Amino acid sequence: MEPNAAFDEYERSAVAAISAAATAEQLEAARVEFLGKKQGRLKDLQKLLGQVAAEERRVIGQRFNEVKTKVESLLSSRQKELDRPKRVIAGIDITLPGRTPKIGVLHPITQTIEEFKDIMGRFGFTAVEGPEIEDEQHNFTALNIPAEHPARDPLDNFYIAAAGVSSGGPVLLRSQTSTVQIRTMERTPPPIRIVSLGRVYRPDTQDDTHSCMFHQMEGLMVDRDVTMAQLKTVLALFAKAYLGEDVKVRFRPSFFPFTEPSVEVDMLWGETWIEVGGAGMVDPNVLRAVGYDPEAVTGFAFGLGVERFCMRRHEVRNIRLFYENDARFLRQF
Q1: CA-to-CA separations, 100 to 10, 258, 271, in angstroms, rounded
Q2: Are 168 and 305 members of one domain?
Q3: How many helices (H) and strands (E) does the chain have?
Q4: Residue 252: beta bridge partners?
Q5: What is the pTM of this model?
Q6: Cα distance between residue 76 and residue 79, in whole Å
Q7: Tens digit of each residue's pLDDT (9 = 90 or more) over 180-208
């Protein structure tokens, strides 16, 4: 065979064999076949050099060295590929530092709710839940809110017409978490010490501190000899536990149908007092409505705005930011 043709055929065969080698054993077999010193096809090519005319020997010798060098280089590269982990061959170098995956975080309101539960749990209160769609008995009547009270005005509540037809009476999205204390007392004898955290709904005019949907923490304690002093102590300690020892809280006399006496709870934010909830001693009529004897037990109840506490801690001035789903805002918590 003419030398150049033999070199070309040798190169094609070597490239094909080395590229097809999938294991170290197959690659070694290709090395022996094409680059073996004692036997193999390279030795045959060397014999051809001795048959070339003297004037062509220099050119043919250069071609021989080029082919040999190319096959040796390809063999070395393939050896390195087989020595590397298989996953690296697919484009993943496991020796490189990992990339921290971008994962979500709990919503700031969810974080606040969980922390509220933890704090109140240390005070001995158990977290309970109740439905967000309520009947008038639990949302109003059992809470000592009479039929003519303005709090029952359809314009101040979200009544659900279709649900009312199917249930046989008016139903609405609960306007307060106080409904849960009624349901709890109906099925649980005293003593009781609970909190309930969840969404409530009111058609309020939206502004920096008001929304049609927000979250409340309802608290209830019923036992013998429960006092207003205990209520104020619990609320003051709670505020300090969540906002720090320097928080300032005040209680203003107020009126709620379901508590007597009643107070509104304010906290100082900068130089402004902001209302964060209402509280008071459970009205005897509420205790009677659930079958408790107001002569034997007393209790206190409170309802606090979750968003406002969260806003105060994180210096968020607009409640709307919590519900605009802006990832740039939410990633800060």
Answers
A1: 50, 52, 42
A2: yes
A3: 13, 10
A4: 264
A5: 0.69
A6: 5
A7: 999 999 999 999 999 999 999 999 888 99
